[in-house]
Each structure stands twice: as C-alpha cells, then as structure tokens.
Amino acid sequence: MILKVFLEDQTYPIEIPDYIVNEAEDFFSILDNDMNQGWQMSHIWIDEPDAHQRCQIVADKLLTALTNDDQKTGVMLSAYILNRMPGTNEVHLSVTGDMNEHVISGD
Asked: Which pTM does this prediction carry?
C-alpha cells in the first residue's frame, strides 16, 4: 500500500507492506493506550479522541518522523492510519502547529 503524504510543496509516497498494516496491532495498541488518557490537540484538551482525531494525532507524529528522516517510524505511523481508517490514501500535513488542521482523506 502507498500513503501519499503532502507536506508543504513536497509529496512523500510512503510504501507500507500489507502485512504491517494487518499485523502490527501491538504497536497500534501502544499508541491507542497513550491516547486513551486524553490528548492535548493544539489548544484543545480531548478526553476521548475519536478515530479521526487519533489519526490526526498520529499524523502529527508522522510529521515529526518525516522532519527527522525517520523512515521506519514513518512507515509504522502510516500503517496505523491505514489500519484505523481503511480507505485512506492521502494525508495533508499542516505546518501551522495545529494538528487539527491535518487532513486525512481517501476513497
């Protein structure tokens, strides 16, 4: 699978093997357990992030991974998004500092 990640004027096609999307539940559960405690989404505290908000939070982590050229983490975070929001094929990352502006879209 390929997730197209857009960051300013750059496009990053991240290739994620199907088996990672389907078999990395241990990693995904770690992310979910962290978010189960609530999350500060820019200026708003969210007690119970929904699936879309969780993917925006993970997209923010993906922004950091791309900035740090951490490809392995980028693949795993992309796999989380594809697992939790099937049909997703694009993520548009905002650099304004507001993770609520990350746009996740698909079929």
From this structure: 0.94
